[in-house]
Here is the input.
Amino acid sequence: MEQSLVHRHGSRVHSHPHRGAHRHLRSPALARPVADHDDHDHHHHGHSHGLIDEQITRSREGVRAVSLSLAVLGATAALQALVFAVSGSISLLADLIHNGGDALTALPLGVAFALRSRTAERYAGLAVVLAIFASAIVAGVEALARLIHPSTPSDLWLLAAAGAAGFLGNALAARIRSRAGRRLDSAALIADGAHARADAYVSLAVVASALAVALGAPIADPLIGLAMTAVILRITWASWVTVRGAHTH
Here is the structure.
């Protein structure tokens, strides 16, 4: 005895023993097995939503991480700018320029994640490297200018506090970026996280500068600024290697 098969005709469902290809005189175009139709639609529907959800989730997590690190570094740079206006320290200016540039690298990264584009993400990584390099050049020029035209920074306690703030801000930004970069498999975020982690230790040089000036060696301030420039250039190279590696895969 042949088993009945449930069929759909538009919004109507009925059963009969016919299997395989066959024609219904009234609505041949609408005739198809209910089970096949529903299984196909369910599989396709679920598969599509899975891909979309994964892309949206990655995009939102990336934008969230970038925005949070931008807020942290923006607040750090603003605090350091206030202290620089009072103290005039070149080592602090070098750190301030670098932290400000580091904060701005969040913009192309945020756009790349919002677009859900791996290609845009890789180019954002290149923008990060260029921003780091530019900050090194500006810091170096300022340090050389202070060597030629010496001046002693003031408000050393504020200067040391600004350096400590730079250390804490960069350490927090590095943690945010590195965790998100590993979770989202983003070379640009990983490079930016390593960059911020190195910057945290560069900020400690501002504290060392305040201590050196307090001990009677004001020349240490621009010299430390030059040393920080060299460190930033090294960070530039390391970040370039990371981002270039992502481009070759």
